[in-house]
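Help needed: design a sequence for this.
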């Protein structure tokens, strides 16, 4: 049967809606463009704020962020995600979703403020309470923002979606820098987040002139509610583990050390996990339209795993050997305490990216129950690590999380294989070449730098070492794994230019 290459997946023409392949490639292109824009802007914001704000501010930000993250998970977001699961536009029922969302978000807004009032009673957590009050405003704002996001994802209108994201992120970043320079302290980390929803509200109510009718129909909402409750249960377990981590680490090490830990995890997530999250979020609406247990889905799964691992594994290794110069360049010397934690944080976030790819493939394959089981494993494992390993220090705690995520990664990939959603060959072709090329490149770089006596702490030597490593990695893939690299490059926008850059012949 003939096939289309749908972004990162080969999709049977008979099973694919018209234009699906083009929309999938468009999703990857716009996501990549937005990610580059966001990374560059975030780089500038980070350079500024980490030099203006003390680690204590980032410790408060970590705690409040995890708490707001929990309330976001149990909000109407997961129920609204049902609009991406249904095949027919007639089953989206946007008006019913908006009516239910108003009640859910209002209740969570009040609950969040009650929690903030309770925090004021504890000397340990009271300094973060005012910020939680402020961030509770994200919940009603999220009603409109996420509503418009899901509309655009359903329409596969990636151009508009990423443009609105860019406007919101750009305005928030500008405000953060301005507040930091004007001396607003930790507020510079919180207030800008409220502005990122505004472009979506403008697009929904002013540009599209959409208006709620406050329609309600229990029968129409029931399927979305059942789907959402399962997803909320699953997401709550992840969020509870994050919130428990923030609360218990704050009690154990204080806001300052938590801020250092946050910088290490934040840099690692920015490098290895966020790109994977954006990529997986973009291809998810396409994956949900690929037939279950089909050859097309297995090919898609293999290419998704290959894309994530071939990018994240070398990035983690490259940043690990340049930890000190990277921290110095991005955050300044006052943050060098985060450098010893960075390699372990990078290993953790790489595994999290792999777990997320397996998780997304399971969810698109309608295996929400197995996603829930993976989240239970994560919650139980994290709580055990917090209780029994934290007393031995942050490095030991990170090591325990790495072991936990490695187990979850193996389990999720095994479930995908058992469910005929990916082949063993697809998994091996995804992970094996990246690991082999990374190890070979890493060994060469370490031998060369030690033989030449290259200093490890300077920014210039770090940049040179990182560039050498990534060049060797690309060369190893091109030389030793030419065919799988070619197959992967063929799935991306501008593939002709990419193939020409790596000197593939047109008939390769």
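Sure. Designed sequence:
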């Amino acid at each position: 049967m003939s096939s289309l290459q749908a972004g990162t997946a080969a999709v049977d023409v008979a099973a694919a809606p018209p234009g699906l392949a083009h929309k999938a490639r468009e999703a990857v292109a716009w996501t990549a463009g937005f990610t580059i824009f966001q990374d560059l802007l975030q780089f500038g914001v980070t350079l500024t704020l980490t030099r203006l704000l003390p680690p204590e501010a980032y410790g408060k930000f970590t705690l409040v962020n995890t708490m707001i993250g929990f309330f976001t998970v149990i909000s109407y977001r997961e129920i609204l995600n049902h609009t991406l699961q249904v095949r027919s536009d007639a089953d989206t029922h946007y008006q019913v979703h908006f009516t239910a969302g108003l009640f859910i978000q209002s209740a969570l807004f009040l609950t969040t403020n009650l929690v903030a009032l309770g925090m004021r009673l504890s000397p340990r957590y009271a300094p973060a309470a005012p910020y939680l009050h402020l961030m509770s405003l994200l919940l009603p704002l999220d009603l409109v923002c996420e509503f418009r996001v899901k509309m655009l994802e359903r329409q596969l209108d990636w151009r508009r979606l990423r443009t609105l994201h860019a406007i919101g992120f750009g305005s928030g970043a500008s405000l953060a820098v301005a507040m930091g320079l004007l001396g607003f302290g930790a507020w510079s980390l919180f207030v800008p987040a409220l502005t990122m929803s505004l472009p979506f509200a403008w697009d929904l109510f002013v540009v599209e002139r959409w208006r709620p009718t406050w329609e309600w129909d229990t029968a129409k909402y029931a399927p979305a509610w059942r789907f959402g409750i399962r997803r909320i249960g699953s997401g709550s377990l992840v969020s509870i583990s994050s919130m428990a981590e923030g609360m218990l680490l704050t009690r154990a090490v204080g806001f300052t050390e938590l801020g250092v830990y946050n910088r290490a995890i934040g840099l690692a997530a920015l490098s290895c996990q966020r790109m994977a999250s954006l990529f997986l979020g973009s291809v998810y609406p396409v994956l949900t339209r690929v037939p279950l247990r089909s050859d097309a889905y297995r090919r898609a799964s293999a290419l998704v795993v290959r894309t994530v691992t071939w990018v994240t594994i070398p990035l983690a290794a490259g940043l690990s050997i340049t930890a000190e110069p990277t921290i110095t360049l991005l955050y300044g010397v006052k943050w060098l305490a985060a450098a010893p934690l960075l390699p372990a944080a990078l290993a953790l976030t790489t595994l999290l990216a792999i777990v997320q790819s397996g998780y997304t493939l399971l969810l698109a394959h309608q295996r929400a129950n197995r996603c829930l089981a993976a989240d239970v494993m994560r919650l139980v494992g994290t709580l055990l690590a917090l209780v029994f390993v934290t007393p031995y220090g942050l490095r030991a705690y990170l090591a325990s999380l790495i072991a936990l995520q490695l187990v979850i990664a193996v389990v999720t990939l095994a479930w995908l294989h058992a469910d005929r959603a990916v082949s063993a060959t697809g998994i091996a072709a995804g992970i094996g070449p990246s690991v082999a090329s990374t190890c070979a490149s890493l060994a060469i770089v370490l031998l060369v730098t030690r033989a030449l006596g290259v200093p490890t702490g300077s920014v210039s030597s770090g940049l040179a070492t990182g560039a050498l490593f990534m060049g060797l990695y690309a060369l190893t893939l091109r030389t030793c794994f030419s065919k799988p690299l070619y197959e992967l490059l063929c799935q991306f926008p501008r593939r002709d230019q990419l193939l020409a850059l790596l000197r593939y012949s047109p008939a390769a």
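The chain has one domain: 3-501.
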